[in-house]
Amino acid sequence: MKKQYIIPIFVPHLGCPNECTFCNQRKISGEQKNVTEEDVKNIIEYYLDSFKDKEIKPEVAFFGGSFTAIEADLQERLLKAAYEYVKLKKVDSIRISTRPDAIDKTILKRLKKYKVKTIELGVQSTNNYILEKCKRGHTFEDVKKSSRLIRWYGFKLGHQMMVGLPESTVLDEINTAKDLAKLKPKMVRIYPVLVIRGTELEKEYLDGIYEPLSVEQAVERCKELCYFFGKKKINVIRIGLQNTETICGPDKKGSEVVAGPYHETFRQLVESSIYYDTIVDKIKKFNTKVKEVEIRVNPQNVSNVVGFKKQNVEKLKDTYDVDVLIKMDEKCPASKIDVTVTKKYQDFIDE
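Above: the chain's sequence. Below: its structure in token form.
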């Protein structure tokens, strides 16, 4: 996959007409002030100076809040500031994220004017009962309508969904993934719900009404979604919130995370679990008692194959009594592994 630099610009809670029970965008983004067009220019300049490979043209991404629900004049000013760098060929494209009920033809024409390429919708769930429970303020009908409009106008469509929302089950989340796949997004983000300080969900958690997922539960749910989206050729571009000074372990000073499945390398946990399943499946197909295997893997995926703190290697040893040898091979496709038996159990007995 071609490398892409991202220049993130957070517009916390700008444009949001309501406060979802799980959300405090200022705490999540780490931003405590509204963004101006001068801020946009300064942020872009800062990142352009910091990128090592000057040949790669980055993408400016407006995250947080609901960009297209911002007052129209401010939208124009922020977009225009970023678009100047597109015209100068210093930036490749612009991406925005927004609410499903903040998309219409007028808005999309404005985004086209400033060469926005990608629009991500914060869907979270396609179950209307769960959406109402979380006070999202939109329905699945809004998601369907806006997704079709976005694709009709030629934008790349992205969806964001959550696991572990109040009263959401594994089946609800699988059904959400199926509903989204029918709308043909190019990419998805999957966010396990964290209990953030200052939210209504925090009160529900402290009152014993809401119980967040454990890390293990969240990994399993996200893994199943990754399997599904992979089969549908839909790229999962993020799993879990971005780590910041405030989005970190609940035990750390300054953390705004009260509870929930936080882990500093959450995506690695999910991908490592997927690789573990793949290794076990390949071993079982050998139809013989295996004592030692060699796994050939691209260097960039060694950590996922080995697992966080060598969890996969240790689990294979504890569960199946199989030793693992890792062989790095740059010729091995990044998404593939090759497993060969280097020692059968009978060989071990005979030694």
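The chain has a mean pLDDT of 92.
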